[in-house]
Amino acid sequence: MSPDDMWSIGELAARAGVSVKTVRFYSDRGLLPEAARSAGGHRRYGPQALDRLRLIRSLRTLDLPVPDVGRVLDEEDALEDVIAGQLRELGSQLAALRWREAALTLLRDCPAGERVERLRLVGAVTAPPSTEPLARFWRRWLPPRLPARVVSSILEQTVPQPPADPAPAQVLAFARLHAFVSRPCVGNDRGQPAAHRADGGHRPAVLYDGLTEAYALAAPALRAGRAPHAGDALDCFVAAYTRSRGVSDTPDFRRRLREVLAADPRIDHYWQLAAELADPAHPTPGAAHDWLLAALHGDIETWAA
Q1: Taking the alpha carbons of 248, 253, 254, 260 in that order, is the dihedral positive or negative?
Q2: Which of 157, 202, 227, 245 has the fewest CB atoms within 10 Å, measured from its CB?
């Protein structure tokens, strides 16, 4: 076709049902290349431009950014990747909107005297909230030089994920948890449990591997509401400490272990807030630890009797 047989920019716009400005916009950005120029230097487009323009309009109707539209037009199989990326972005946006809605509901429904304080707490958290401050807290709290595998496993258990569709009370719990872990000097060496101190001859990596197993064994009893008692979970709990120290499990060791654990610093507030965010079917490590401590106390009392 000669340039005179092709469509002008106005003719293409009319056939597509869009404005000349729209055609020029996409043409200037390389999404709609012209086929030729007229003798007077005006743009000319062939019939294939109409199909391309309609495809561009369809993609833009879905709010795809212009660069993504260009990828779909120029790269084979790009549409699937672009759609996946857009769905991820929309998921994040929806999560942010649900979080904001719950936060606003929390502020609307709370007593007037508490509104300023709650606004301060909630305003310090992004929407959707990031768990990175919680992860940093645990990296400071844990003993140094733990293998990455162990740290990753601990973070997976100890850092609660924000609910996808939070209730106002859960927004408040997460905001309070964020404030707790963001306090100055949280997790300094003076606040570490005794088992974190290398001078005590401990092997923390062995300890935490064992504790993870013990907490998992205790979880069914916690879910069932059973009272703390001796058994496999308690034996695994004690074994985590004996293996980390290279000693034997004896009644005397269990008595000393109870004394050491009773003197350890506690972060009960963290676990109370984490429990409000966690799935009830998955007890927090804090709840499992307390259950096992109570079981250890009962076991020692039985020995003493």
Answers
A1: negative
A2: 227
Cα distances (Å, whole numbers) of residue 127 to 93, 102, 103, 200: 9, 11, 10, 43
Q: How far apart are CA 23 and CA 4, in angstroms?
A: 19
- Look at the block and give the residue holding tokens 């004996």: 242
**Span 173-205, pLDDT tens digits:** 999 999 999 987 644 444 678 777 666 677 889
Return the CA Rg of the chain: 31
Q: What single DSSP character describes residue 7?
A: B
Burial class (CB in 10 A: 0-12, 13-18, 19+), 43: buried
Q: Which helix (H) or strand (E) holds 37?
A: strand 36-37
- What distance in Å separates the CA atoms of residue 260 and residue 263, rounded to the nearest whole number? 5
Lowest mean pLDDT among 33-37, 90-94, 99-103, 218-222: 33-37
Which tokens in the block code for residue 171? 């927004």
Q: For helices 251-263 and 285-304, what crossing angle results, to 10°?
A: 140
